[in-house]
Design a protein that fits this description.
It is a multi-pass membrane protein. This protein is mostly helical. The chain is built from 14 helices and no strands.
């Protein structure tokens, strides 16, 4: 592999990128698949510890994807592989461990989901405070609308839970971990070569598999549970949540900015409740529809094209 060819890998290998699907369509699919993760986490807790399910979800994907990524992984520079491993630790391990462990310790699922969906706020805050990027008034206004919509949608599901006070920092840490990984991935890919989607996912799953094996061993056995429920939990979260939601997140990030891609996830609570209605019979309400509309307006405000004023980059 030549040095010049590396930046082009991402544009040609994954089938979904080669199709040149319009970005809004990819973002819609991403939200649907991403939201399935919260439902899958709830479903999984009936059959096994969350870390055990995530461990085997990553293990299954590591094995299944290997034949499709081996050649590119072998030919990739060591520095690129190490960088992706570090990004994977932040993006997959850090995010899931923070949110899942918070729920396990007693943070309510509704509050954990709300904190996780503060990802646009975390992304913009990091860009503004640490990277000195100027944030436009339109972005702040769109974020305020998006958050208002999320609060309206989630209001009936929000309870404090029974967790110790420090446990509420875990979902926040998980959300910020994914925000850091998103910005790191986008900025590093623009300066150096990048892997295509499937090898990226494979590396993230391998390092996360190792980390969740350590986390689960500290709590109990890492052996899979021979039940249909456990197998369904692993299959659901591997195929829909990881390949679908997590994979599409990185596909969208290759085409746009972290602020835009994460802002679309303001719709995740609404779609999560639709998943819960379809799978568990949980009721829907008019406030959910109103909140969805408000969040949608916030996304339109944040993602609407605007002229560049030159100088510092604006979000």
């Amino acid at each position: 592999m030549t040095k010049a060819s590396r930046p082009c890998l991402a544009a040609h290998s994954p089938a979904i990128e080669a199709l040149r699907v319009p970005l809004p369509a990819l973002e819609a699919l991403m939200v649907i698949a991403w939201s399935s993760g919260f439902v899958g986490m709830r479903f999984s807790t009936d059959y096994a510890p969350v870390f055990l399910v995530v461990l085997w979800r990553c293990a299954v994907l590591s094995v299944c994807l290997l034949p499709f990524v081996a050649r590119e992984i072998i030919n990739a520079p060591a520095g690129l592989l190490l960088r992706q491993a570090a990004i994977g630790l932040f993006a997959l391990t850090g995010y899931i461990a923070g949110v899942a462990k918070g729920i396990e310790l007693g943070v309510s699922a509704g509050l954990s989901a709300l904190i996780a969906n503060l990802l646009p706020v975390g992304t913009v805050a990091i860009s503004s405070i640490f990277l000195r990027e100027r944030i436009s008034g339109r972005t702040w206004a769109g974020m305020a609308l998006g958050m208002a919509g999320v609060l309206v949608v989630s209001r009936d599901a929000l309870t404090l839970g029974s967790a110790p006070l420090w446990a509420y920092a875990l979902p926040v840490a998980g959300m910020m971990s994914l925000a850091v990984a998103s910005i790191w991935q986008q900025r590093s890919a623009s300066r150096a070569g990048s892997l295509s989607l499937l090898p990226t996912l494979w590396i993230h799953c391998v390092v996360s598999c190792l980390m969740f094996a350590c986390l689960q061993m500290s709590q109990g056995s890492v052996r899979p549970i021979a039940t249909i429920g456990f197998a369904a939990s692993v299959g659901w979260t591997a195929a829909i949540s990881t390949i679908g939601g997590y994979g599409l997140y990185w596909v969208c990030l290759r085409r746009s900015s972290p602020a835009r891609v994460s802002s679309v996830l303001f719709l995740s609570p609404s779609v999560t409740f639709v998943w819960a209605w379809a799978l568990f019979g949980e009721p829907l309400s008019w406030p959910m529809l109103v909140g969805t509309i408000v969040s949608g307006l916030g996304i339109v405000v944040m993602t609407r094209p605007q002229g560049s004023s030159g100088g510092a980059r604006r979000l």
